[in-house]
Design goal:
7-stranded mixed β-sheet, globular, 32% helix, 5-stranded mixed β-sheet, 405 residues
């Protein structure tokens, strides 16, 4: 067990958690999904067996495997307790080993007969390691071991709402993640040229995600994914996933670089599209249209604005330029505790009824895709402030910076 005297504090998040617990009419919540453990405590579990307990009074307690304790120093938990998930003296499942320790903790906190909230619904979980434990519906079994008499209440709605708003501490960590990704893009593009394959380019860009950061940043883990799609392949980037191939890049190609990177569980979603050598007239028109759509959307971003209005601003601009049908996905979605999640808010979709709030973070990704020809997407990370939009990815922000002559 470790009592923490923390350099990192996040009082805004703790207060938000307290309010959510009160709205759910619970005495405490127990979270097991790594994204929720991160959101509640500031610690991103490695193998998915960590838990966090948050009480109605605002106490945050982490329960982590013994060998993850050293990585919890940047959390804002009031206390970090450890348990031993594996032993030569006992063969147990994660539910059994964590359940025993959680039982002791809930009894000490006087919560063993209290109303406890837990996560139960669908989720999207970014991978923090080669393999992860996800308790899933077994969270109920775990809680029954830990507190057999406690009434349980699913609180997924509250978790989704909590994750939509980022605190100043969390936005600062996202700035760090975006800064590292920006350095990777700036370094990677210096090597980009005709004759390389998409695979070679992807490796060059990804290398910067885990090397362009320093110990002084306070980060423990930084890495991510970089995908290169060139020429006709770049038109396929409208799909729900990116895929790097062995195609050789040629002069005149669009080269679309898509990146999802992380720093200690805080994720980015960034795309830049380059053209090798002088763009032709059509490519120039597409750059102008996408950047005009980006500017139109950015001008609309402020607290209280409907998310559908942001989507409409970008979509109408592209339609005016004759490219409306080529914009095949929504204008953006929530990013932060995960890079891509179907459950993340806000959703910048034509049918979204959500409104922007200060602290929301999302990607803004106007794009056009033409099968057999190519695709152009420019995807930034955006934070909503009281004054409007803060671009968290302020690099390579004009067509001139993306044209590799």
């Amino acid at each position: 067990m470790t009592d923490k005297s923390k350099a990192v504090r996040n009082p805004e998040r703790v207060e938000m958690v307290k309010q959510a617990i009160a709205v759910a009419d619970c005495d405490a919540v127990v979270c097991a999904l790594p994204v929720n453990v991160l959101m509640m405590s500031g610690y991103w579990p490695v193998v998915g067996t960590s838990l966090v307990v948050a009480t109605r009074e605002g106490a945050i307690i982490l329960l982590v495997p013994e060998d993850e304790k050293e990585l919890t120093e940047n959390s804002w938990a009031d206390e970090v307790r450890t348990y031993q998930p594996n032993s030569l003296h006992k063969l147990q499942s994660p539910v059994e080993s964590a359940g025993e320790s959680l039982h002791e903790l809930l009894h000490r906190l006087g919560l063993h007969c209290s109303r406890i909230g837990y996560e139960f619904g669908p989720s999207s979980e970014p991978s923090s390691y080669a393999a992860m434990n996800l308790y899933g519906t077994a969270i109920v079994d775990l809680l029954r071991i830990a507190a057999p008499s406690a009434p349980l209440a699913p609180v997924d709605k509250q978790f989704v709402e909590l994750a939509a708003i980022k605190t100043p501490v969390e936005i600062e960590r996202l700035r760090l993640a975006c800064g590292i990704a920006g350095a990777a893009f700036e370094g990677g593009v210096t090597h980009l040229r005709a004759g390389l394959t998409e695979m070679q380019v992807a490796v060059l860009f990804r290398a910067g995600l885990c090397t362009h950061w320093a110990v002084e940043s306070g980060a423990h883990r930084a890495d991510g994914f970089a995908h290169c799609m060139s020429g006709p392949n770049s038109a396929l980037a409208s799909r729900a996933y990116a895929r790097t191939r062995a195609r050789e890049i040629k002069n005149g190609d669009f080269v679309l670089m898509h990146c999802n990177s992380y720093v200690d569980g805080y994720w980015t979603d960034i795309t830049r599209t380059y053209v090798v050598r002088q763009p032709d007239e059509r490519q120039q028109q597409l750059y102008e249209a996408v950047f005009a759509a980006r500017a139109a959307a950015l001008a609309e971003i402020k607290p209280g604005v409907k998310c559908s209005q942001i989507d409409r601003a970008a979509r109408e601009l592209l339609s005016q330029r004759g490219f409306g049908e080529a914009f095949k996905h929504s204008t953006g979605h929530g990013v932060g505790f995960a890079a891509i999640s179907a459950n993340a808010h806000p959703r910048l979709h034509p049918l979204s009824s959500e409104t922007l709030q200060t602290g929301m973070v999302f990607n803004l990704e106007p794009a056009v895709y033409f099968e057999g020809y190519g695709g152009l997407r420019h995807c930034d990370m955006i934070a909503v402030t009281q004054r409007g939009a803060e671009v968290l990815t302020p690099f390579q922000q004009s067509p001139e910076e993306l044209i590799l002559r």
